[in-house]
């Protein structure tokens, strides 16, 4: 009896294992890992990166992030740009890949990288570089990107280019960048007797202005901060940078926020929340919550990137006129990020050259592609948001002039931000895990009047060290 | 008339376990015959089994393997117990288990007693019982996100209804979801309100299955309402109460939606971080699917224990 049961169990076990293995095999068949993508050299054209693209070679490249049908004006511009590009490069066929919603959703992006199913030219955030390289996803394009293939290369902010390099090798070309500043609601500033053209430049000034704005009553908060969904940690990091602090030390192995500067940031926020009562009662806010508050004139200031303004106008029905921007208070450093295109590892040198030619035309030419501001205005899209802002020298002058000339919003409202650039600093290693821990510091400060700041920072330090040790 | 007389219990056994033919079972032939006889039924079964296999069983098997693998780097490598070590060393690990246990205990105290009490009360009404049933079940029909938003407004410390009411009675304002000491309690209250309808209806069905004579006999013996509940209602619904208790433990230990939507997941100072929220973070915030699978496996092992008890109780009820 026992052995019969054992046999049945064993048979069932074997069946389960066989089924599982069959299904695994089927699933494996479904992934599209094409072997020729990995071999690298299957070019019919010149493999010399410095040589120009052979006009006789027919090349087809797939490009990420073509605007979806719902974004009619952007799609029209894309098609115009492809037609214009093909006048110079008739041998290159551009196949756009369209994604609804955001171009890059992290879980989908990771899955795509692992399956090696990314387009030939794929869209990334600056912070994706380690992940892309871990997955052997991007081509080293150092030798391909020269002042011949990208004539305005010398005018691109080296800090931006540094975000796309590792060990001296270049893996991407930027499409836009951001640095965080102080976003202000002009109406509330005026109502509180403050000058919206001169946003606060120090944290003491922020505290004073926040008290005045909160004094307007009716549930208006002077200054807002996140404390949930990892965004609390993200903004704590931005505040640390703003006063010249670090969150993780240079070795990348140790937490660096539990010191004088960390305590200063934490105590300032705690005082604004509990002594001044200038941060509103509703806390545990995350991305999107502060935008809604400031768009409905319930919030005076918060740390933001310029693209938040476009989001608030286009999605929340706010008006450009009601916002202004200054540099991040403290002005020692600010959190920086941005977006880029990378080129899939293993595609032929001709494809790489064609991809760089397209990226140069579409994203890196003043007056053309994404910088054709006259066309952007004619198509009813916003002009004047201080982003992207990676040009230097003559390119910057030319682009700024064109942007001001065709602005669809009062660009002088952003003058304080534009005229006082603060050096950008990238996010710390293991950023999201570190932010998760620092969320607790922010939520502790903002929800607990009796918060023990020393203890909150010490616990977080210990936890971040643990996270960093597990790399 | 010469049929053998069987006692009821033997008859039941007879129905369950038909006697086998003497000697070795000609399994191949019988299986083929049975397959032929029930071809249509098997046809329908194949679809269901395939769906389960692809969308339910395969992911479970895959998750088991994933718990011991690392998928970063394009290729999958076996890492032994590394994922488990990562998970256990996570600063949030023990806090998440403590929070989950607290939620489960609070949810049992409230979420178990309140629907049962509601069912007992509704059962006492002879008129308008249908309306009461509908009223109790209405919150279940509300989409969870809408229900959660409702509670977010109720709990809001700035303009929420609860603090307004407290103000009317001269009580001090509370921070509800934002106070680390009471945030989990506030989440449990919202969760109980959202989910009690289903449990109440099950208890009500069980209560209505109790023979009326038992209550009549108790009344003749002079029992009041509390004694009737204690001596008749609870013993008669003991099994269903046990099953619901187990189901609730299994369900509440997997809580995710309510804390995620009410407090952004972690809550003030991490006070509402649950185990399933941590799994979500590993998978979708940190792209560490191996660690997510490892933590999922730990939760599975624990819940499997409860499930085994559940199955055992189900069998006891059958017999």
UniProtKB/TrEMBL annotation, chain A:
Name of the featured protein: Extracellular solute-binding protein
Keyword Phosphoprotein: no
Keywords: Signal
Origin superkingdom: Bacteria
Region (Disordered): 31-56
InterPro entries for the chain: Bact_solute-bd_prot1, SBP
Keyword Hydrolase: no
Signal sequence residues: 1-27
From TrEMBL, chain B:
UniProt feature, compositional bias: Polar residues: 1-10
Annotated localization: Cell membrane
Domain ABC transmembrane type-1 as annotated: residue spans: 97-310
Location of the region described as Disordered in the Swiss-Prot/TrEMBL record: 1-29
Taxon lineage: Bacteria, Bacillati, Actinomycetota, Actinomycetes, Kitasatosporales
Domain of life: Bacteria
CDD domains: TM_PBP2
Biased composition (Low complexity): 19-29
InterPro entries the record matches: ABC_transporter_permease, MetI-like, MetI-like_sf
Keyword flag Transport: yes
Keywords for this protein: Cell membrane, Membrane, Transmembrane, Transmembrane helix, Transport
A Pfam family recorded for this sequence: BPD_transp_1
Name of the protein this chain belongs to: Sugar ABC transporter permease
Transmembrane regions listed in the UniProt entry: 39-58, 101-122, 134-155, 182-206, 237-257, 289-311
Stated family: Belongs to the binding-protein-dependent transport system permease family.
Any coiled-coil regions, as ranges: none
Membrane topology: Multi-pass membrane protein
């Amino acid at each position: 009896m026992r052995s019969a049961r054992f046999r049945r169990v064993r048979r069932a076990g074997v069946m389960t294992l066989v089924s599982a293995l069959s299904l695994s095999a089927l699933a494996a068949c479904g992934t599209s890992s094409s072997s020729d993508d990995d071999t690298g050299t299957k070019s019919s054209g010149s493999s010399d990166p410095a040589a120009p693209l052979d006009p006789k070679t027919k090349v087809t490249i797939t490009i990420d992030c073509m605007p979806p049908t719902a974004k009619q004006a952007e799609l029209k511009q894309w098609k115009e740009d492809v037609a214009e590009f093909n006048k110079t490069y008739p041998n290159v066929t551009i196949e756009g890949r369209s994604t609804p919603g955001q171009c890059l959703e992290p879980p989908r992006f990771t899955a795509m990288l692992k399956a090696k199913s990314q387009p030939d030219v794929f869209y990334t955030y600056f912070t994706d570089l380690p992940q892309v390289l871990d997955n052997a996803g991007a081509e080293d394009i150092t030798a391909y990107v020269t002042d011949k293939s990208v004539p305005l290369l010398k005018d691109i902010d080296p800090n931006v280019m540094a975000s796309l390099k590792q060990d001296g090798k270049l893996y991407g070309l930027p499409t836009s960048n951001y640095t965080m500043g102080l976003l202000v609601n002009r109406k509330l500033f005026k109502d509180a007797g403050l000058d919206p053209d001169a946003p606060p430049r120090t944290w003491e000034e922020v505290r004073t202005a926040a008290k005045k704005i909160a004094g307007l009553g009716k549930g208006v908060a002077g200054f807002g901060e996140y404390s949930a969904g990892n965004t609390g940690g993200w903004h704590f990091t931005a505040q640390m940078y703003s006063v010249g602090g670090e969150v993780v030390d240079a070795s990348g192995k140790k937490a660096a926020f539990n010191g004088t500067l960390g305590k200063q940031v934490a105590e300032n926020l705690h005082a604004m929340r509990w002594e001044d009562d200038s941060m509103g009662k509703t806390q545990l806010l995350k991305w999107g919550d502060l935008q809604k508050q400031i768009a409905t004139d319930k919030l005076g200031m918060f740390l933001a990137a310029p693209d938040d303004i476009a989001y608030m106008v286009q999605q929340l029905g706010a008006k450009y006129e009601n916002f202004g921007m200054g540099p991040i208070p403290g002005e020692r450093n600010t959190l920086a990020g941005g977006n880029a295109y990378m080129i899939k590892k293993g595609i032929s040198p001709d494809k790489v050259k064609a991809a760089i030619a397209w990226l140069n035309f579409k994203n890196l030419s003043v007056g053309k592609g994404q910088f054709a501001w006259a066309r952007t205005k004619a198509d009813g899209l916003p002009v004047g948001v201080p982003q992207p802002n990676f040009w230097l020298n003559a390119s910057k002058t030319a682009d700024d002039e064109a942007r001001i000339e065709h602005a669809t919003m009062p660009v002088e409202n952003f003058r304080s931000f534009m005229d006082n650039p603060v050096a950008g600093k990238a996010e710390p290693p293991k950023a999201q895990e570190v932010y998760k821990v620092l969320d607790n510091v922010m939520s502790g400060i903002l929800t607990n009047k009796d918060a023990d700041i020393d203890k909150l920072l010490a616990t977080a330090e210990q936890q971040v060290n643990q996270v960093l040790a597990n790399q | 008339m010469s049929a053998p007389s069987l006692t009821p219990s033997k008859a039941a056994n007879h129905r369950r376990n038909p006697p086998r033919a003497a000697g070795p079972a000609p399994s191949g032939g019988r299986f083929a015959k049975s397959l032929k006889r029930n071809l249509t039924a098997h046809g329908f079964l194949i679809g269901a089994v395939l769906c389960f296999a692809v969308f339910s069983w395969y992911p479970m098997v895959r998750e088991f393997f994933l718990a011991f693998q690392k998928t970063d780097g394009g290729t999958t490598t076996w890492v032994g117990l590394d994922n488990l070590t990562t998970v256990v060393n996570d600063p949030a690990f023990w806090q998440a288990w403590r929070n989950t246990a607290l939620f489960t205990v609070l949810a049992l105290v409230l979420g178990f007693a309140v629907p049962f009490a509601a069912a007992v009360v509704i059962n006492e009404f002879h008129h308008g019982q249908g309306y009461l049933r509908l009223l109790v079940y209405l919150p279940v029909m509300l989409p969870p996100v809408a229900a959660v938003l409702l509670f977010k407004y109720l709990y809001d410390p700035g303009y929420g209804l609860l603090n307004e009411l407290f103000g009317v009675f001269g009580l001090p304002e509370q921070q509800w979801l934002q106070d680390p000491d009471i945030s989990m309690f506030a989440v449990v209250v919202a969760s109980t309100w959202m989910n009690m309808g289903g449990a109440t209806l099950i208890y009500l069905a069980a209560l209505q299955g109790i023979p009326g004579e038992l209550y009549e006999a108790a009344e003749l013996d002079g029992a009041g309402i509390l004694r009737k509940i204690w001596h008749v209602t609870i013993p008669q619904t003991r099994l269903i109460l046990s099953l619901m208790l187990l189901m609730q433990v299994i369900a509440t230990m997997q809580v995710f939606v309510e804390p995620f939507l009410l407090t952004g997941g972690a809550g003030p100072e991490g006070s509402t971080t649950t185990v399933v929220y941590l799994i979500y973070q590993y998978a979708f915030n940190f792209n560490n699917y191996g660690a997510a699978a490892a933590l999922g496996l730990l939760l599975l092992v624990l819940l499997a224990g409860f499930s085994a008890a559940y199955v055992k109780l189900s069998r006891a009820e059958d017999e």
